Amino acid sequence: MHVHILGICGTFMGGIALIARELGHTVTGSDANVYPPMSTQLEAAGITLTEGYDPSQLEPQPDVVVVGNAMSRGNPCVEAILDKGMPYTSGPQWLAEHVLADRWVLAVAGTHGKTTTSSMLAWILEYANLKPGFLIGGVPANFGLSARAGDAPFFVVEADEYDTAFFDKRSKFVHYHPRTAVLNNMEFDHADIFDSLADIQRQFHHLVRTIPSSGLIVAPKNDQAINQTLEKGCWTPVETFDLGDWATANENLDGTAFDVVFKGESQGRLSWMLSGEHNVSNALAAIAAARHAGVPAVVSINALAEFENVKRRMELRGTEKGVRVFDDFAHHPTAIDKTLRGLRAQVGEQKIIAVLEPRSNTMRMGVLADRLVDSLAEADEVLVYAPSTLNWDAEGVLSGLGDKLTVAHETQAIVERIAQTATADQHVLVMSNGGFENIHQRILDALAES
């Protein structure tokens, strides 16, 4: 089968491409910007890429076109597909029909922590020699790739609540029909497609409706939005974490070591490379989900002791002149707060310089901007990038940060300020869900030349 993918360089669609190629299909694709690292990963797999959306790429006609959710009406390829009556589908639907059928799907959903928890879970199953398939919205360091078909029966999928395609406005995760589902947390996000938290809860309840009574839901004990969602109807056993069925004891202040406790009984002690309360919660959720798939908690604990995290999750990009530069995907106020608290627990009173790009659609719209002052409180200095596309006044909204705050309208101004002022034993935490004009490496280069 010839599969052509529109929007192929996104992490999810790129993962679909890698799995389709692994299954023996001929795979081609296009994107508006074809660039590394996804472009090189795809080309290495023998996938032909086209820059842009000229309809000529659809000749000869593929057997099916998989349409990414960034595509909309008016796109030349989309219009050509519809005009010619070509077969098309969405990425989640293709995955469900060609990969997930007859698999034990372990889906990880939630506003925060999906990528990290999915990566933990996939690594636990791999460590247990179960050779799972997976599709994750990031690159787990233990695997070095974001997706693979794996061996039956287990498949781990990061289950996103964002919409599926221009022709299917349901959340992606309703296609996956998991047997094991992690609901990590739930907050309002994606203001470009959801009007309220209630809208998101409705989609999560659609997911809950698909989980069999022989399955398992893993959820935090005290997340009000999730509890309200489950109260709408739940037909599946639930195991809770964070002061629930799964808990911790004797925890280090920075979360680098803790006892894992299940229903009051210690399962073993985890000492690992990660830190922060959010990652402790992610670990408990992954251990619980793996246990449902038959992996004893002690095996999961041993696996996580060797877990190397995910690229762009508190990833140390380099150190220059004693200044450490981290890259993190945090872009929602809650994630920003948790990431900063995790770093603070590591570094104590040493200076943290937070560099933030409010890039997500929700952040650019300013929907949650009033929460940023509190979420950035742990930083000693805050540099915020405010391009012309930002729909709110960063100086005004963030004025509560006082002298900590610098708003820059060009990334070069941020680079120069850090190069001029940062000193040894300080930590630069760059937070964005995009490439941020390669600011991480530019900061390191500028520090080296200073």
Number of strands: 23
Describe the strand arrangement of the main beta sheet, using strand numbers.
8-7-9-6-12-13-14
Distance between the terminal alpha carbons, to the nearest Å? 55 Å
- Compute the number of helices: 15
Percent helix, as a range, is 25-40%
**Major sheet size, sense and barrel closure:** 7 strands, mixed
What shape does the CA trace take? globular
What low-confidence regions span 5 or more consecutive residues with pLDDT below 50?
none
**Global Rg:** 22 Å
Question: Structural class of the helix and strand makeup?
Answer: alpha/beta
The portion of residues forming beta strands comes to 15-25%
Q: Average pLDDT value?
A: 92
Written account of the structure:
- This protein is of the alpha/beta class and 450 residues long.
- It has 15 helices and 23 strands.
- It has helices at 11-22, 38-44, 76-84, 91-100, 114-127, 197-209, 224-231, 277-292, 297-304, 333-347, 361-365, 372-375, 394-397, 411-421, 439-449, and strands at residues 2-6, 26-31, 48-51, 64-67, 88-90, 104-109, 133-135, 147-148, 154-158, 163-165, 168-171, 180-183, 216-220, 238-241, 246-249, 257-262, 265-271, 315-320, 323-328, 352-356, 381-385, 405-408, 427-431.
- The strands form five sheets. The protein has a seven-stranded mixed beta sheet with strand order 8-7-9-6-12-13-14, sandwiched between helices. Strands 18-19-23-20-21-22 form a six-stranded mixed beta sheet, with helices on both faces.
- α5 packs across α9 (297-304) and α8 packs across α9.
